[in-house]
Input
Amino acid sequence: MGLELYLDLLSQPCRAVYIFAKKNRIPFELRPVDLLKGQHLSDAFAQVNPLKKVPALKDGNFTLAESVAILLYLTRKYKVPDHWYPQDVQACALVDEYLAWQHTALRRSCLRALWHKVMFPIFLGEPVSPEMLAATLAELDVTVQLLEDRFLQNKAFLTGPHISLADLVAITELMHPVGAGCQVFEGRPRLAAWRQRVEAAVGEDLFREAHEVILKAKDSPPADPTIKQKLMPLVLAMIQ
Amino acid sequence: MGLELYLDLLSASCRAVYIFARKNSIPFDFQFVDLLKGHHHSKEYREINPLKKLPSLKDGKFILSESVAILFYLCRKYSTPSHWYPPDLHTRARVDEFMAWQHTAIQLPMNKILWIKLLIPMITGEEVPAEKTEQMLVEAKNNMQLFEEKFLQDKMFITGDHISLADLVALVEMMQPMGSKYNVFVNSSKIAEWRMRVELAIGSGLFWEAHDRLMNLAEWDCSTLDPMVKEKICELLQKFK
Output
C-alpha cells in the first residue's frame, strides 16, 4: 500500500496537505474521513491516529498526525522545490516561525469564526449570542491584521519573495471564515493581493477544488441528535 | 554583537531555548526581559518583537521569535549533535509531530494551571471558580495520558533511545504547574521515570538552575506589579467566570 492521506476538506489543515500533495504531484490514496458524521471518532481511524484528528498520514507502517509534521515529511520525502521550505537556515527559520505562531493565533480565530457564525447555529442547532459572535469576529479581525502587519508586510509572500508552506497554511486557514461569510480580505488590499498571488502559485483549479467543501459549509444539513451529542463536547474543547 | 537571546525563565518556551543553548555550549548574551515587571511591553522590546512575546533571538540583524523556530535554527546553525533533531525521515517526523501538537495540548493547559492555581488568586485576590479549575485539570490530565500513550509509549525518550528537542520542550512545559506547587508527574510512574531521564540527560545542575525562578514564583511580591498589567489580569479572570 502506498501513501494514504486521511482527510476531510472541511478542515483547514487537511486543505493545506491536500493542495501541497496535489501541487507537487505526490501520489497518494485519499481516505475520506467525514468529520460531520463523526468518522474521526471510530476505532478504525484511531489505529491511524490515536489523537482522533485529521489530517493523518499512513505510509506503509508509518503513521503521522499533525498537518505541519505531515507537510514537512512530504517536503523531505518527495524532494519538492526549495521555496516551499528553503535550505537557507534563515529563510527556513521564518517559515518555522510562522508555522509555530499560527497554531494558537490564526488557526484558533478562524476555527471559532466558522463555528460561532455558521456551524453552531446551522449544523448543531445551537444559537450563539450576538455578544459571543461579535467578540469572535473582533478577535479574528485583530489576528488577520497581525498576519498582515507582522508577517506579510510589503513582501510578495509571508516569508519572502516566494510561496512557502507558511502561505499555504495561512491561506487555507483564512478560507475558513470566508466559508462562513466573513469578508476578511475586504479593506485589506495588501492581503487581497497576496491571496491572488497564492492562488495563482497553487493553481486556481486546484485551489477551487480544495475549497469546494468549506464554501458550502452554510449548507450543512443539521446534525442528527446522536451525532450532535457525540460531537458537542469535542467541538467545545476544540474551539475554547 | 553576537547571538542574543531575549528571555525570562518563568516562561517554559524560554527555558527550552536557554537549556538547549547552554547544554550545547552555544555562546549568547542573555537579555533578561522581566515578565513580572511588564518589560515585554517596553518600547525597546517591542522593537525586537512587536508581538511582545518571549523568547526572541537576535543574530546580527536577523530576528526570530517562536521557541520551536529558534530551537531548529540553533540546531542547524551550530550543528548540534544529531539526536536533538534526528536526520532520519521518520524519527524527525516524530519530533515535528510532537512540536506541533504541544502548542495547544501541553503548553497552553500547563500554563493555564499556573495562572489558575497561583497567579490569578495572587494578583486579583480572587479564586477561579472550582468548576473551571476542575475542567482545566481534567484536560491537562487527559493530555498527559495521550502524551504517555501516543508519544512516549514504552520508549526511553519520545524518539527512542536518545533525548531530542521534543523531550526538552515537553518537560519544561510540564514543569510550569510546579510554580504553583502542582505536580503533574505523580500520576504516572512511566512519566515520572521519563522526567528523571530527561533531567539527567540535560544535567541536573543546568535543569534546576533554569527552573529556579519558576520554583520561587510563589514568593513574588506582586504589589510591585504595574497597575496596567494588573488590570489586564483582572480582565483575564472575567473570562474564567
Observations:
- The longest strand of chain A covers residues 3-7.
